[in-house]
Design goal:
single chain, alpha+beta, Thrombin, subunit H, Pdz3 Domain
Length: 468
Amino acid sequence: MFRRAIVLLALGSVLGVLFATFLGPQPARGADSPPELKAEPARATRTAKDISRPMIEATAKVRPAVVKIVTFRDGAWGRRYRGNGSGFIVAAEGHVLTHRRVLAGNSSTVIELADGRKFEKVALVGADRRSDVAVLKLLETGDAPLPVVTLGDSDDLEVGELVIAIGAPYGLDSSVSLGVVSATGRTGIVRGNSTEDFIQTDAALNPGNSGGPLINLDGQVVGINTAIQGSLAQANIGIGYAVPVNLARSVALALIEHGVARRGYLGVSFERVLDARQLEALGIEGQGGVRLRQVVPDSPAARAGLKPGDIITAVDGRPLKDARLFVARLAQAGPGGTVDLIVHRDSERKSVEVTLDEERPVLFGLEVATLDQERAATLRLNPRLSGVVVTRVEEGSAAARAPRSSRILPGDVIVQIDWDRGYRQITNRDDFEEVMEYFRERPPEQVRFWIVTPEGRFAVVLDAPRDS
């Protein structure tokens, strides 16, 4: 009985399959196929092609010179980590411009071109921490010529202008995305950057795009793609940033010619940044400005007639909404370059052209200003105290790398400096700079800074910087 039931069940399954095959829905064949699928492919209209033509031609012009940068970093237990970024060739002899952070910590680098060529012998010409610009050089380029980009004028960019980003997001080399310039002059984007004047764009930038070019519709590079809003692991959300190519060009030239970035030096310190409402209360038109606290004697600023209390509202025709924009313009102009300042003094407005000197390296990463009674009161210190107040500690510097228990912070007042060959009481900025100048000629092993804060006086010992 059981065996008979099994046979009937198997027979039923076979009949079910047969009924489903012959009586169920059948695929259309031959003459039943829709004519729309058999028609010839539609051609893009001339109008549609004409609209896209500038993007197509700009991309074709730049894309061959955009490179994929593959980096390798040695880790613990023999592990090797791989990363990737982007760059672009700026000179026929093999110079590649990219983003400094693409190269951070790597032990070797491989450059891959869009035409399939690979270069494993790559030298680091130089990297600048403050602008995040780096220059590489291909050491053996072979007989075939290298494609080279054309550098444009980032000062000519307008908000709303179409731009194209090219790079290797997630390792996908020669990837292209289209967007607009969302804003210019963005600051406070990358922690630790002191030279910021970012272009903001909604062109899609993802991890791996860093170092690639941002181009205009003439196929000219106007920026180096640098960062996306949020963490580096985050995908694009329509907010990305690029270093203006005018700044990058100035830094790259200095790195190639001198091995270090050379910046223009004006010789002032800022009292405060003023917004449009504060300027209006002073009877001044403008989007923002900076009021000068100090003018260094015999500096370019002093020679141009600038004085403490002057308010600067524009540099080279650009509204000055942030002190970091000012620093970026000085870096872009470089030593021997000129900047045109709009200066307000009392009720007078005038244009002042200043020829810049070269900024000296900031030893230990400390920037200081003379302590005056107003600053002392703000810091809750004795108004009769003499010294210099630390205004900024550069990220990655000797001071910033010190252990937390031996760290100098903005707002600390330096009153004395000791080293193995002597000591110096510090009463003003000139005293501090004289000691730093001495250290440039005779580097000490260690330096002891005597610091005063509201909590008291104590000493901080720092190793002499080797990379300042």
